[in-house]
Design goal:
Serine Threonine Protein Phosphatase 5, Tetratricopeptide repeat, DNA Cyclobutane Dipyrimidine Photolyase, subunit A, domain 3, 5-stranded parallel sheet, 475 residues, alpha/beta
Length: 475
């Protein structure tokens, strides 16, 4: 009898812990070929003059793949790496290495599921099975108390029933050994230039946290946030912060590529509750993980509606005639509203933005500037290190009022938010140095100060810092 070889196709599950496809393959096959493909479609221009993948996320991806390769090598295996189209490369590898089956985790967004379907069709011609697994959520869809088509469109209703009637399964074991074929070709992680980028991202000393890709860095962050700094116990009170590494968990980047398993985080929370403290903060982090699940299930239910202006409602927000010009001001952090500009400049300089910032800049773009909300979602797709299709587009649709928000006309008063969450102006001062001399909260409305006072602070509205955009002068 010939040896059985299984190819494990990694995509957004770049870890060896709690990874069913890797464990299952290691148990059932004589040889395992872990494989990652840098899909060339992910590094091309996208809609609205944006990129599918910006340089910060690309760098994080490269680091994560390199870390996975090293982890697999420590288990005796290796990660085979290619660049191109999975539907062309995987069938060729199947033939070359006499692979009998291919394993992968299901995705929910249309582009990702489309690639899976392309691979499945190509493998079907070779009479090879593409076996689907579920591994991106706390709860499997089979564990939910309702079928996908009946999931409530209001999160609170969903949450209460799931918390009452479902349970989170234990994590899968980590394989002890990965046996690779003796003739497995060598491969290396490409660099940014090979992916089409002309320069590397520059680390900004103002960054809230150094976000480096890979399972080892994700688990180190988990240990630091929970056990070393004890930050979890205060999460609910600090999560709306703007400056520093520990006001929030910052797990989202590692979750987005599956370097961290949501179940691993959940069970670590439970351990923390047993050994340290159980309070509103420990619950709230589990609550946020459930939101992440919810958007994935909503994508299963509503599909491509999340990429359309109307979402799954009957209408979409009003749009300005000069929205292209307004969009460019918003993207570059030149709206003349310091709190908005500071958040956008942080995003552009680091690939990160706080949750509080994301809600405000999204609401401002949609409700104040009246720009097509899908443009903002596409720009976040390019810039955010932690981009995840369902969370990103689900949250933008939510703010735009065409998604899962039970309240109509949700609106963030940006100046009120600025005064509440940046009362001394420290965050604005950090990211907009041209305003650094303006004292305390006055920094949030510099256009209201007399010209002679502004001159004392070395500020000239309209020159050293923009006039506020006409649509929001009434603030």
């Amino acid at each position: 009898m010939s040896d059985k070889t299984i190819l494990v196709w990694f995509r957004k599950d770049l870890r060896i812990h709690d990874n069913e496809i890797l464990l299952e393959a290691s148990r059932k096959a004589d040889f395992v070929i872990p494989f990652y493909c840098f899909d060339e479609r992910h590094f091309q221009p996208a809609s609205f003059n944006t990129l599918k993948t910006g340089v910060f996320r690309a760098q994080f991806l490269l680091e994560s793949v390199a870390d996975l390769k090293q982890s697999l090598q420590q288990l005796g295996g290796d990660l085979l790496i290619s660049k191109g189209l999975p539907e062309e490369i995987i069938p060729a590898l199947v033939q070359k290495y006499k692979v009998c089956e291919v394993y992968h985790h299901r995705e929910v967004a249309s582009e990702e599921t489309g690639v899976s379907e392309n691979v499945e069709r190509a493998l079907w011609k070779q009479k090879i099975n593409l076996k689907h697994f579920i591994g991106h959520t706390l709860y499997h869809k089979e564990d939910l108390p309702f079928p996908i088509k009946d999931i409530p469109d209001v999160f609170t209703t969903f949450r209460k029933k799931v918390e009452r009637e479902s349970r989170v399964k234990p994590c899968f074991e980590t394989p002890q050994i990965i046996r690779k074929p003796a003739n497995l070709e060598s491969s290396k992680v490409p660099d940014l230039y090979e992916l089409g980028f002309t320069q590397k991202p520059v680390a900004d000393p103002r960054s809230a946290i150094e976000i480096k890709g890979g399972e080892s860095n994700g688990t180190a962050r988990l240990k630091s946030y929970f056990w070393d700094t004890d930050s979890l116990k205060n999460y609910k009170n600090t999560r709306n912060g703007l400056i520093g590494s520990d006001y929030s968990s910052k797990f989202s980047s590692w979750l987005s590529l599956g370097c961290l398993s949501p179940r691993e985080i959940y069970w670590e929370i439970k351990k923390y509750e047993r050994e340290r403290i159980a309070n509103d903060s420990t619950y709230w982090l589990s609550f946020e993980l459930l939101w992440r699940d919810y958007f994935r299930f909503m994508f299963k239910k509503h599909g491509n509606k999340f990429f359309q202006k109307r979402g799954f409602k009957d209408s979409y927000p009003e749009e300005a005639e000069n929205q292209v010009e307004l969009f460019e001001c918003w993207k570059s952090g030149q709206t003349g509203i310091p709190f908005i500009d500071a958040n956008m400049r942080e995003l552009n300089a680091t690939g990160f933005m706080s949750n509080r910032g994301r809600q405000n800049v999204a609401s401002f773009l949609i409700k104040d500037l009246k720009v097509n909300w899908t443009w903002g979602a596409a720009y976040f797709e390019e810039q955010l290190i932690d981009y995840c299709p369902s969370s990103n587009w689900g949250n933008w649709a939510y703010v735009a009022g065409v998604g899962n928000d039970p309240r109509d006309n949700r609106y963030f008063n940006v100046l009120k938010q600025a005064r509440e969450y940046d009362p001394l102006g420290d965050y604005v001062r950090l990211w907009i140095p041209e305003l650094k001399n303006i004292p305390l909260g006055k920094i949030h409305e510099p256009w209201k100060l007399p010209a002679d006072r502004l001159a004392d602070y070395q500020v000239t509205i309209g020159k050293s810092y923009p006039n506020p955009l006409s649509e929001i002068v009434s603030y």
